[in-house]
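Handoff note, outgoing to incoming analyst
You'll be picking up this chain. Sequence as last confirmed:
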Amino acid sequence: MWEKLLFCESSGDWQANTGNGFFGGIQFVQSSWEFVDGTGRPDHASREEQIYRGALLWEQQSWNAWPGCRDKFGWSNNQNRL
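Most recent structure output, in case you need it:
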């Protein structure tokens, strides 16, 4: 599932930084990254770190953290597990 989200969000680039305020493979905003105790910028973090922080964010916001991909894939906001 993380790979599916990765390709939806950043076309498969874990170091994505296109200047739009979203960073990394699953496109964190800096405030969300820091909310889940990420340090530095998401696009400088490893794949594993981004997935770990993404899972923490998912626990708080479900797929609302990635609304475009949520809608594209029909993932439920009320889904209670990854």
